[in-house]
Amino acid sequence: MTHTSGYKGYYLESPMVSNFFNGRNDFYGVTKEMVSDKAGNLNMNKASYDFVYSNYGYAVLGLVLESVYETEYTSLLNDFAQNELCLTSTQISDKSGDLGKYWDWKEGDAYLSAGAVTSNIEDMLLYAQMQLEDNSYFSDCHNSLKSINASTEMYKTMGIHMDEIGMSWILDSKNNIIWHNGGTGNYNSYLGFNPETGTAVVVLSNLAPNYRVPATVLGVKLLLELDNEK
Known about the structure:
It is built from 8 helices and 8 strands, in the order H-H-H-H-E-H-E-H-E-H-E-E-E-E-E-H. The strands form 2 sheets. Strands 3-4-5-6-7-8 form a 6-stranded antiparallel beta sheet, sandwiched between helices. It has a two-stranded antiparallel sheet with strand order 1-2. It is α+β, with helices and mostly antiparallel strands and 230 residues long. The longest helix has 15 residues.
């Protein structure tokens, strides 16, 4: 959960080669067996490693959840989001939105837990409100598990700080912001909140993360401006 397991961002598997030439999502067709076999062959001989953002690590976490709950990840995620959290527009992508250019996935792909969830602004604002209300599902997720000091100099210049990490949530200790972002080939997003001021910002963009100004930069800028007005 903290991206300090020593796992790389991903490990090359044969489907990734054909995905590259066919212009598909890198992780399309990577099976659960491929991910679990790789995990069994890795020699992780340290208790902890430096922060390295790992989609592979979250593919492994998806397999762990499937094993614990004896349920396919798609059913598990959809049921939790829609029935437990009442986020009715949040689900594993079925490419049913109206914007196009969605990532392709095969049913049961191992990397669904790393990048296949889709939502909308209404649901994400409700989700942000749950974080501010210290919802019982999420209250422990905000606690720091490890100091990572992972901000690049460019990030620091833009006011983006990655000081500590909880259960996936990044903690900006300088500004008391808890945040995370996401990005695929044609979309990027940001959700950040300050539990002291009760302020939250969600930015959803149908542009690639490296196109002009990313959602993270916009989100941090707006959140800091709102907090300074308090």
